[in-house]
Automatic annotation (TrEMBL):
This is Formimidoylglutamate deiminase. GO terms for molecular function: deaminase activity; formimidoylglutamate deiminase activity; metal ion binding. One of its GO terms (cellular component) is cytosol. The lineage of its organism: Bacteria, Pseudomonadati, Pseudomonadota, Alphaproteobacteria, Caulobacterales. Residues 8-42 form the Formimidoylglutamate deiminase N-terminal domain. It comes from Brevundimonas intermedia. Its EC number is 3.5.3.13. Residues 48-429 form the Amidohydrolase-related domain. It comes from the Bacteria. Signal peptide: none annotated. Gene3D superfamilies: Metal-dependent hydrolases (3.20.20.140), Urease, subunit C, domain 1 (2.30.40.10).
């Protein structure tokens, strides 16, 4: 056995356990005992939680956080800024930033994910071309950089190359701002093959596909995606904005999720990102198919998207995962808090996502854990045979005083300050210690240098 970790308490698949020793070898949990005393040489400490998967990230957007909060000049007459005006700013941001800068920004985002309790990320990767729109000599140049950032930080990677071919429904020609995203099916198949090679030696890596959205792919192109994914997951943006719903209706006579369920083989391999504007018939259709909805509450709030009916959806057996999307803020607790509070505001109630067996925090956490694992092609939980992806809360923190069981999760999500995570182990290796990633200083320095180029 490589090492043993002892914790005051741990959230196991069957519930809370106390005085827990976890044996780790080869990056996996090989033994698990409860009700035992710690011994000299044990690592660990605090309260152990399984690491959560981040189901949706555009890591490069981390560098934009805080730079899009002013009213656009075209809206000084009183018109509202919205997702579409934000998107134009994002396109302009992509005028700069080559492979070195993207790798540095990605590494910072991945580092912060680990510090925030995410141990796996589904990277929705759509920067395939250089800033002019020309293909890199190596089609997988930026994918290589994403893999390097995962290696540098230690996070588990679900790589989702994005297929993006059109500016709007009906096969509209792409705009200048989309030039870094564009691909064709042959080139995309080559990219997927390269991603599989690149990740072959990356522990627990998964490769899937991501047709960007119904507006960016044609029906024929979408039909090709599941086969290209192989055994991996299929992710797609859908119904994020009301304009998207209106445009889809004008194009097809159906709403986006309605069209997708009627025309694509949506099943448990699929993750429908956002799904914000859905009817009851649509979300019940998603439940029936067993797909996961990928919710990104902080980004959805930041962009003014709207609120997905998560409470009704989960009561009907719906599955969700959480993602950080634009990475304006990064953390498991922060996303789950925003999710619950958005439901409370919409429904004017409290403890909306709780059930009769679990508190709000535990219900949120366990649902996000299970949905995230499904959506990223991973296995989650603290159990023998699983990857040793463990998050330890600082049980000595004042926010946890007098708390045990579900109250620990409730206090972490709703009452604890940032930095309540003391350590994170990924595949048995401690990548966060005393609340800081072990390579934080070097990653931050490289990020600062990258921004000097991107923002000059």
């Amino acid at each position: 056995m490589d090492r043993s970790l002892w914790f005051e308490a741990a959230l196991l698949p069957e519930g809370w356990a106390h005085d827990v020793r976890i044996g780790v070898a080869g990056g996996r949990i090989v033994s698990l005992e409860a009700g035992v005393a710690g011994i000299g040489g044990d690592g660990g400490g605090g309260v152990a939680l399984p690491g959560v998967a981040n189901v949706h990230s555009h890591a490069f957007q981390r560098a934009m956080a805080g730079l899009t909060e002013a009213r656009g000049p075209e809206n000084q007459d009183g018109a509202d800024d919205d997702f579409w005006t934000w998107r134009e700013l994002m396109y302009r941001f992509l005028d700069r930033g080559g492979p070195e800068e993207i790798e540095a920004i990605t590494a910072l985002a991945f580092m912060e994910m680990l510090e925030g309790g995410f141990t796996r990320v589904a990277e929705f990767h759509y920067l395939h071309n250089d800033p002019s729109g020309a293909a890199y000599a190596d089609r997988a140049e930026i994918a290589t950089r994403i893999v390097a950032a995962a290696q540098a930080t230690g996070i588990a990677l679900t790589m989702l190359p994005v297929f993006y071919a059109h500016a709007g429904f009906g096969g509209q020609s792409p705009s200048h701002g989309q030039r870094r995203f564009i691909n064709d099916l042959d080139g995309f198949a080559d990219l997927i093959a390269r991603c599989r090679i690149l990740t072959a030696d990356l522990p627990d890596a998964v490769v899937g596909v991501a047709p960007h959205s119904l507006r960016a792919v044609s029906p024929d192109e979408l039909a090709a995606m599941p086969a290209l994914a192989g055994e991996g997951p299929v992710h797609i943006h859908v119904a994020e904005q009301t304009k998207e719903v209106e445009d889809c209706l004008a194009w097809s006579g159906a709403r986006p999720v309605e069209w997708l369920l009627a025309n694509a083989p949506v099943d448990a391999r699929w993750c429908l990102i956002h799904s914000t504007h859905v009817t009851e018939t649509e979300w019940r259709g998603v439940v029936t198919r067993g797909a996961v909805v990928g919710l990104c509450p902080i980004t959805e709030a930041n962009l003014g998207d709207g609120v997905f009916p998560a409470a009704e959806f989960t009561r009907a057996g719906g599955r969700f995962g959480i993602g950080t999307d634009s990475n304006v803020q990064i953390g498991v607790a922060e996303e789950l808090r925003m999710l619950e509070y958005s439901q409370r505001l919409a429904l004017r109630g409290r403890a909306v996502m709780a059930d009769l067996q679990r508190s709000t925090g535990r219900a949120l956490f366990e649902r996000a854990l299970a949905g995230g694992a499904q959506a990223t092609g991973a296995v989650s939980g603290l159990s023998v045979g699983a990857s040793a992806d463990i998050v330890s809360l600082d049980a000595s923190g004042v926010a946890f005083a007098g708390r045990s069981g579900d109250a620990v999760l409730d206090s972490w999500i709703f009452g604890a300050p940032t930095g309540s995570i003391s350590s994170v182990w990924r595949a048995g290796g401690e990548v966060v210690k005393d609340g800081r990633h072990i390579a934080r200083d070097a990653i931050k320095a490289r990020y600062r240098n990258a921004l000097a180029t991107v923002l000059e």
